Amino acid sequence: MDWLKELLKDYVEEGKVDEVVDKFNKENPKHFMPKQTFNEKSEELRLAKEQIEENKKLLEAATQKASTIEDYEKNLNEFKQKYEQLEQDSNKRISEISKKTDLKIKLSEFFIEDSVGLILDKVNLDEVKVGENNKIENFDIVLEGLKKNYPRLAKETTSSSATSETKEEETQRDTSNMNDEEYYKQQGVKPLW
């Protein structure tokens, strides 16, 4: 992100450049897809569209070249079936890509960034319901299941860190009235003397 720091030096105070870059790095995955992922999905979509166009051309060629009515009907039906199947497969693939992208953006808010791709592979996309505005309707249910199955990959919440601080304070209070031998015995450590 050196390029961003250089760009911001002219517009932001020196002490705040790193802070702005850190905030940008945290917010960026929520709003943008990595270039490599976008290019892969665009390539898949382009190939699917090319296949659809190719089948359309084959369908047109079949209608022009069929010498008899029987051959014509046979070829036409075959190409129609291929075209319909390809169109269904393409629409399904586009829907899956859209679901995965939306889920990845939303899951990055709740799970460690590097683990989102791995967790996403475990989601059954057939169970994910998309509403009218291409928004995931049952995201809370999906999120609960993932948090239950992968609790170590979830980002820590403030309540859990507050609980751990309270436990540490209790441990310190309990040991404050102990002599060295009692303390080491409680910790399970053998003193060196």
What does this structure look like?
The protein is mostly helical and 193 residues long. The protein has two domains: 33-153, no CATH class; 158-187. It is elongated, with a radius of gyration of 29 Å. The protein contains eight helices and no strands. It has helices at residues 2-8, 17-31, 35-65, 69-107, 116-121, 139-149, 158-175, 180-187. Helices cover 70% and strands 0% of the residues.
Briefly characterize the structure:
With 193 residues, this protein is an all-alpha fold. It has helices at 2-8, 17-31, 35-65, 69-107, 116-121, 139-149, 158-175, 180-187. It has 8 helices and no strands.
Task: Throw out a few tags for this protein.
193 residues; mainly alpha; 2 domains
What is the strand and helix layout of this fold?
Layout: H1 2-8, H2 17-31, H3 35-65, H4 69-107, H5 116-121, H6 139-149, H7 158-175, H8 180-187
Helix pairs in contact: 3-4
| Element-level helix/strand string | HHHHHHHH
Approximately how much beta-strand content do the residues carry?
under 5%
> Based on DSSP secondary structure assignment, what is the total number of beta strands?
0
Give the assembly state of these chains: single chain
Major sheet description: none
Distance between the terminal alpha carbons, to the nearest Å? 53 Å
Mean pLDDT, to the nearest integer, reads: 78
The tally of helices reads 8
